[in-house]
Amino acid sequence: MNAKVTAPVAAPTKDGGFDWRRALSNRVSWLPVGASALLLILLLVGAQMRFESFVKPGVLSSLFVDNAYLIVLACGMTLVIITGGIDLSVGAVMGFSTALAAVMLNDGVSAAVIIPLVILAGSLFGLLIGVLVQYFDVQPFIASLAGMFLARGLCYVLVPRNLRIEDTTVLSLQNHKFRFGDWYFTGTVIIAVMVVFVVAWLLAKTRFGRTVYAIGGSEQSALLMGLPVARSKVLVYVISGTCAGISGLLFAAYTAAGYALHGVGTELDTIAAVVIGGTLLTGGSGYIFGSLLGVLVYGVIKQVISFEGAEQYKFRIFVGVLLLAFVVVQRAIVSRTTSRR
Amino acid sequence: MDGEPVVEVANAHLRFAGDVALDGVDFRMFAGEVHSLMGENGAGKSTLIKAMTGALRLDSGVMRLDGKTVSFSDPAAALRAGLSTVYQEIDLLPNLSVAENIMLGREPSRAGGIDWPRMRSAATEALAVMGVDIDPRSPLSRHSLATQQLVAIARAISRDVKVLILDEPTSSLDQDEVNELFRVIRELKARGVAILFVSHFLEQVYEIGDRITVLRNGKLIGEYKTAEMLRIDLVQKMLGKEAAELTVLESRGPTPAGSTDRKAILTARGVGRRGATKPTDLDVLEGELLGFAGLLGSGRSELARILTGVDPFDGGELILDGERRRFHQPRQALKERIAYSTESRKTEGIVGELSVRENIVLALQADLGWIRRIPRERQDELSASWIEALDIRPAEPERRAGALSGGNQQKVLLARLLALAPRVLVLDEPTRGIDIGAKVEIQRLIGDLAANGMSVVFISAELEEVLRVGHRIVVFRDREIVATLDPDAVTLEMLLAIVAKADGDD
Which whole-number Å values give the CA distances from B439 to B204, B233, B394, B432, in the listed order? Predict the structure, then answer.
C-alpha cells in the first residue's frame, strides 16, 4: 500500500505454506555448520565401512573424553574469532594452568583451592591480552603471541621436568567413568559440555553475544550504534583465557602430569577446529555448536589415523587439506551472499 | 514562533588533523522543524554533526540541549539523551538480521536472555512506520542499499527521539522511497521532533526544510527561513562564487554535429544476465555523451558493469569495432581502453591509504604490469598535470586520498581512468554525494572529453542532470531499456514520467 520496497526475501509465500527457500536464506550463516555436520557424518560412515568396529559406543564416547579439553578451548576461541580477532595464547595458557595445578598439588594444596585458582590464572592471561588489544591498540595476533610466549616461558619456570600429579580429586575427573551400557563419560566431559552450554547461551541469548557479532560485522558501526564495544572486546579475551584455564585443569586430569611442553601447537588445532566448524576467520559469523562439530571432525580423523596404525604426521596432512577446503568453501559462501545485493 | 531552541551550539571551534574544521559556528534547532545544513564538501557539515553526536569533541564552544549544557563523551551518550543519527555511509551490520540491526543496544530481554519474538515484533513495527515490509529475520546483507538505508532510519526513529539527524539520507533512495521518508519526517515533525536534514538535492531541501543554515569553509554564513530564500541565493551563499558561474548548470555541451551518422564503437546485441538485466540492445557512438537514466536497480548500473567487463553476461553478444568480444575481467576491457568508474567510490574506487599520486598512477601502472615500473619523475609529472587539469584540491600529490572530500576523490578516480586515455569511459554516478561546485566542474569536464572524441556513458540518479549532460538518453526501467530519447525533445516531466511509470504496481 505504501512505498514499494523490493526485497529478495520478503516475498510472501504464494501457497501459504512454509517457505523453505526463505527460511534457508535467512539462515545462510548456518550453512557452513551444516557442511561440517555433513562432513562428520561422511567421515563416520567412511570409517565404519573401513573398520567395522568404528561406530560403536566405546569409540564415540572416547571422542568426547579424549577431546574434552579441545572442546573447551574451541568455545573461547569461537568468541574471539567472531569478533574478528585471534587468540594464539590458548595452548600455552592451557599448559601453564596444567603446570600450575601440578606444582600446587605436589605442594599439598587442596584441590578445592587449586581449581578456582588455575582457572583464574587463565582469565588473567586473557585480561592481559584483551587490554593490550583494546586499550593499547595492539593487533590480536601480536598481543596473543606475547601472551603465548609469556605463558610458555612460565611453564618452564614452574615445571622444568615432568611433574606427576597424584591427587585423586583432580584425577577422578578423568578416571571415574560413568557408564551407561557401552557408553561412558567422565567428569571432564561434563565440564566441557557445561562450558559449551554456557558459552552458547552467552552468544545466542545475551546482549553481550549480539555485541560480539556486531563487532565482527563492523566495529565502527557497533561503536556508532552505542554498543559497549570496549568492554565486550576485553571480555571476549577474558572468556577465552578462562576457557584455557578450565581446559588446563581438564588436561591435568587427562595427562596426570605437568610438563613444560604441554599444549604446544594446541592453539592451532583449536583454530582449525573452529574454522572447520564454520566460523568465519574474518569475523561476524559462527556458532558454538559448529565449533563442537569441528572438534569432533578433528577427533574422528585422529581416531581413524590411529586405527590405520599410520604415522601421526598423516593426520596433520589430512587436517591441513580439510582446513584449506573449508576456507575456500567459506569464501565461496561469503562472496555469494554479498553478490546477491 | 521561534521559542526556545531544543539544540543550540554556540561558538564552536574544532581543529581536525591540523586543519580548521569549525571556526566559530553557531547552530540551533527547534522542535517540530526540519533544519537543513547546507554547504559544499569540506564546509564542516559532517564535522558539526559528529561534534553534536559525541563522535568528535569540540575544542571550544558549548552545546545546549533543552537549555542545559551538555557534552557527550561518545555516540551512546548522545543516543541516551535523545539524539539519534543516521550517517551518510550506512553504518549497519551486514552480518546480522534486520531485526538485530534495528534493536541492537536495547534488545528486549526475558529471564536474562534476549526475547527474540518481542525483538522481531518491535522491529516489524519500526519498519511498518517507514512503510517497509521485509522479513525482520532476514540478514541485512540480503537487501539493497536503499532498503538498508530505510532500516537505518527505522532504527534511528524507533527509539525515543528528540533530535533526529539525517546525513544524506536520500542519496541511495529512489523517488518513491524519498516520498515515503518525507512522509515519516512530516509525522515526526508533528510529534515535535527536531530534524536535521542534510542533502545535496536542493529540490528536497526546499520540499521538506523549514530552516537553512549555510556553512562555508568551517565558517557560519547564516541562518535563513527556507521560504524566504531564493534557490539561486542559497547556492551562491554555499559556493561563495558569483551567481553568473552557475549558468553553466543550465547549459549542455554542444551536441556534436551530425551525431546521427556517427560510428558505433561498442554495440550490445541481446546482452543480459539473469537477475541483472534483460537482453538489451545498445550502441555507444563515437564521441557521444550517453546518459543512462533510471531508478536504482532499473538495470542502469548493471548494464554498465556488463559493458565494461566488471560483471559477466550470460546471453547475447558484445561487439567492439565490429568484432565479437567477451570480457571476463575489467582488465580485458581496459586493454581495449574501455574504463569503468564505480558508483561505490569508497569501497571499490579510491584506495584511501594511498596518496593522491599513487591513486592516479594505479591503473596506468596496472596496465603496464608491475615489472615496468613508472619512474617516479613520470609519476610526479602525471599526477601534477592531472591535479591541475581537474583542479583537485588540495593540490598536494602526497596527501592521503582518503582525507580528500568526496568531490575531489571523484576527480582523483577520474584522473586515474583518464590517464589510461580510454576510448569509452563509463561513469557510474560520478556526481553522487558531492557538492554543486564540484558537480558543475565534473559535468564540464565530461563534456570536454566527449568533445575530444571520447565516448562517455554517464549514469546519474538525478534525471535533471542526465537531461542536461547527455547527447542521447537511454531510459531504464524494470531491468531493460524502455526508451532512447533526444534530450532536446523531452522535458524533465516527460522523462520523469517514463522513468517512474508504475512497475507492476497493484
Answer: 17, 18, 17, 9
Residue where a domain terminates, one of B205, B239, B273: B239
Q: Does A312 touch chain B (CB under 8 A)?
A: no
Q: Which member of B104, B139, B147 has the closest CB to residue A210?
A: B104
Helical axes A111-135 vs A90-106, angle rounded to 10°: 150
Interface ipTM: 0.79
The residue whose grid cell reads 601472551 is A147
- The answer to whether A10 contacts B55, with C-beta atoms less than 8 Å apart, is no
* Cα separation, B73 vs B79, whole angstroms: 11
Helix (H) or strand (E) holding B426: strand B424-428
**Phi and psi at residue A22, to the nearest 5°:** -70, -45
Q: Total structural domains in chain B?
A: 2
Q: What is the pLDDT tens value at each position of chain A, 341 positions in all? A: 344 444 444 444 444 456 666 666 777 778 888 888 998 999 899 989 988 888 888 889 999 999 999 999 999 999 999 999 999 999 999 999 999 999 999 998 888 899 999 999 999 999 999 999 999 999 999 999 999 999 999 999 998 888 898 888 888 888 888 888 889 999 999 999 999 999 999 998 898 999 999 999 888 888 888 888 999 999 999 999 999 999 999 999 999 988 888 889 899 999 999 999 989 888 888 999 999 999 999 999 888 888 888 777 888 888 888 888 888 877 777 666 554 43
User: Distance between CA atoms of B334 and B424, rounded to whole angstroms?
Assistant: 9
Q: Which residues constitute the domain of residue B90? A: 7-239
Q: At CA B59, angle to CA B55 and CA B64, rounded to 5?
A: 70
Q: Indicate the DSSP class of residue B348.
A: I
Please tell me which of the candidates A4, A214, A221 has its beta carbon nearest to residue B176: A4
Q: Which three cell numbers stand for residue B306?
A: 556488463
* Strand order across the B315-320 sheet: B277-285, B264-273, B315-320, B323-325
Q: How many CA atoms lie within 13 A of A312 on its CB side?
A: 1
H or E element at residue A164: strand A163-164
- B144 interface with A at CB cutoff 8 Å: yes
Say if residues B473 and B293 touch (Cβ distance below 8 Å): yes
Question: Does residue B219 lie within any of the structural domains?
Answer: yes
Do the Cβ atoms of A8 and B143 come within 8 Å? yes
Is residue A103 within 8 A of residue A118, CB to CB? The reply is: no
CATH code, B312: 3.40.50.300
Q: Which three cell numbers stand for residue A282?
A: 574474518
Question: In this structure, what C-alpha cell is assigned to residue B302?
Answer: 548493471
Query: Each residue of B284-318: pLDDT tens digit?
Result: 988 889 999 877 667 888 889 888 888 888 888 88
Collapsing DSSP states into helix, strand and coil, what is residue A141?
helix
- From B501's Cα to the closest Cα of chain A, the distance in A is 13
Are B290 and B474 within 8 A, CB to CB? yes
Query: Are A219 and A134 contacting, i.e. CB atoms less than 8 angstroms apart?
Result: no
Q: Looking at the structure, do residues B277 and B138 belong to the same domain, yes or no?
A: no
